[in-house]
User: What shape does this take?
Amino acid sequence: MREQSKYLEGVDKKDLFASGHRACGGCGQALAARLVADAAGENTIACVATGCLEVFSGPYPDPSWRIPFLHSLFENAAAVASGVDAAYKALKKGPVNIIAQGGDGSTADIGLQSISGMFERGHNVLYVCYDNEAYMNTGVQRSSFTPYGAWTSTTPTGNTTRKKNMPMLAADHGIPYVATATVDDFRDLQLKIRKALTIVGPKYIHILAPCPLGWGHHGELTVEICRLAKDTGLFPVYEIVDGKVTNVKKIPAKVAVEEYLKPQGRFKHLFKKGVPAKEVDEIQEIANQNIERFNL
Amino acid sequence: MLKQIEGSHAVAHVVAQCRPNVISAYPITPQTHIVEGLADIVGAGQLDAEFINVESEFSAASVVLGASAAGARAYTATSSQGLLLMSEVIYCIAGMRLPIVMTCANRAISAPLSIWNDHQDSMAVRDAGWIQLHAEDNQEASDLHIQAFKIAEQTFLPVMVCMDGFILTHAYEPVDLPEQKEVDDFLPTFKPRHIVDPRWPRGIGLFADPRFYMETRYILHRALEKSEETIKEVSSEFAKAFGRESGGFIKTYKLEEADVVVVSMGSVVGTIKELIDQLEEEGKKVGLLQICSYRPFPRKEVYRALKDKMNIVVLEKCISLGRGGILASDVRWSFPRAEKKDRDISSFVAGLGGRNISIDDLRYMVEKVEKEPVEFEFLGLRTELIAEKEM
Assistant: This one.
């Protein structure tokens, strides 16, 4: 509680990421982007990758950003942010918050090399990944964050591989701060943004951001789906400070994965015969492994 | 100060004198000596800059993009595959009007892998919206970098200085290196136009729907065309300040009296001039038109220089596969439609993948076009290596 009041002091709804953008109703990413911008405050530069966020918030001449916004390509947000960091150092300007932001495709797949480079070089950049578990902007194609069993337009019979573990991959670069968060617990999310921005060096925050369109859930359920993702153990929420896993969010009452899967159209093929398909057992196994690994 | 120096080190020296704030690069032969030279200069504390060693050329270009958008004078260098890997960012840099300067140590493109010189790499991004200047020798390569920063920052267009890999980058020649004060007097401090800065929040790199996209391309195209004036002005300011001619749009050699004119660019023009002198002694009048600014293309100058010439031969180190000579197309396009009929414009491709272009090759080419025009020919081709059915 003390940590909350320390980091959340002065955080309020400033609308630095303004309403009126073109995201779908119930978009987890839009909610997350606003929470991130408001937590970071005015003294912030957003380096955004191509994707849903950039498309719904960055059309000329009506961008939603009230902080400087820099976009060039899909796979280079972390490298562009490295350049901004280098310029601020060289020109002896700042301090300034530099936040590179991208979806799961630009983070886990096409932009992974550029993120790895930014981490390894030690830039003073916070990288925020909005994880909606597929390429939503292009029409729900599979990414390496797509969970096991999920339908996407390129895995029509269900995804056969497990999700890439990006927070651990980030932490293994030896960076000082890694955290996961979800959009339902906005205080926790904003606290982690604020905390990360007090640390000099590369930081990584992985935010679960449900996509009503791609996940096939009602927009009203975005927040509830996040709670279920945590309470099933499918999305563990924790921090990794200087390489040590800490502040793991305990599950108040464990929920079976079926409760999480059933409201989502992307998993409905797993229940169409009236009984759960064998993939559901595999997904429960993934949740159980997380619970054991993180002592959720 | 005249110094016997490797081309790459001369370029590193003058780039440092231009005081870039951010340098980012990834190693690729034959560009490496340039960035090694700059790393040494930064490491020795002689240049106060951020030197960012990245994990790919793609990130090198992205780092200088970000740095330039944040108000820094930014520089990178690459070659060949590196330039192709950068190409997505190369287009972005121009579209975002970021005045970045890059050296392209020209090298062939895979496959097959070749580390040796031709112009295929910079040609692959000729339509991206960058100014492309081609150096004849190491003196000009050095001088063009000083001019490039000034041109870029006056036009808000990125500038690529092209110098032939190995032939220039690794050659030791006497180069007149300027004093720091001369460069400081010539090149004013960079005053960026639009930057990301929380004091003035703005979006850079917004997306444009069909109502707006085409105008951005028109404006960029016009900016390239209009940069002609700046390129010429900066070249003549340079001549005044440093006492030697470098850069500009085109250069000519013994052109006025010439019956046959060779059009080319890059280091091969040295060999062409040597041949022209030899042929002159034999009573033949051959001249040279050298393209210094390939983009924007000096259409008017080319026409003015060649309008009374009836026998023209274009020699180039690149090819549009399935089409033919690229520079030859540009030269043919420089003449008004009505005038094209009676003029012979021959097209030769040579020196691909570092194949040596000898003075005898050039003599063969000139003697051949004296007899009859050549639609298109590979010069110096080893036909004995090619199977009959592949011919």
